[in-house]
Amino acid sequence: MRSLPLPLALTARLTPVVVLALAGWALSSGAETTPAAQDKSPGKTGTQSTGGPSTTAVPKTYTAAPPPCGSVAEKTVKSLVPDAKTAGKEIASTDSKIRRTCSWNALKGFDYRWLDVSYEVLESDDAAEKYYAQRVEEKSGGGAVPGLGDAGYSVVNLTTEDDQKTREGVVLSRVANALVVITYNGSDFETKEAPSSDEINKGAIKAAKEAVTSLLAEAE
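Above: the chain's sequence. Below: its structure in token form.
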């Protein structure tokens, strides 16, 4: 039987606790595409003061990160990550009230796919807006996704390690004081090629739309 050693970068991703032990979801440099969009709009659940001497309450739509593993439909998981367990696996977080992540990954034949859905809640809409802008700047080279929450952004990158190509898409969305982060990547271990930019970008955006819709439902 042919030996299929995983590139070091992908081997690391197969250990979710290592991948998401820190706050970020890092991407390698080398952006290559931008694209697309659809629609949804934010909802609210209440307000909360940030404390201190000011008596003005700062709007805070979400007080805790919702469960991420039910945020994407089973048929979507089956489509994007063939052979993955549709229930997903929630990754341990240093503070599950403000950040929660669910992962799906599987190797079907020689094709590998990985999908992460993360929710992160910040102290206010303003704080989330600034953090969103920071994350977009860090992942420069992509493009806006109109209609995805209050703001949406998509970027796709191609990396190569030990002749194995991996293409990864990241979609960011801000909904009030919450951020939705989608990471979707893939590789073909037989050809050492990667899925097309279009496939990865569209898959990441599809998951993002469903994750944003699930977040909005939490505010109703």
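The helical segments are 8-13, 16-19, 74-80, 125-138, 197-218.
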